[in-house]
Specification:
This protein has 168 residues and is mainly alpha-helical. The protein is built from 2 helices and 3 strands. It is rod-shaped.
Length: 168
Amino acid sequence: MQVLDYGYVKSLLSNTRTLRQILEESLSLLKMFWRAALPSADPSVHNLKKEQCMHEEILSLRLRMSEQEEVLKGTVQRLRSTSRTKENMEHFIVNQLSRTRDVLKKARTNLEKNELRLSSLSSSSSSPYAAEDPGGAARVWPADRGVLKTSSAILRPATRKRSSECLL
């Protein structure tokens, strides 16, 4: 064993006091400027619980997000299907209205032709059918094979069979 020098021990004690003083000042500065909580004595348990809670929350949010994505996909599919149905219905209605317009145009044309024939028959003094009809009514056979009878001022078209197609 060596004998320790008194001066060496005194110097070591002085350096230890200075070091302690510096550490205390550092601690007070840290407390003054650092507002955040310093870690607890056993940080591993606290951090482990925090991480576990965060992990569970992340899983819950991912599950919720996937459910919302599925709902959104279903809604988009229904919206597209509804849109296609609407477009098809619009085309169907336009086609039916176009058919109806064409039928009405043809009917108007036929009526105008029949009126012209009737007016030309009534203006002519000799009708080939006047002698055949003792009631005084003339018969005309129009192009669409419907029979029109003129009696006084009333014109009635002959009844026709309805088409099996829906016009609306």
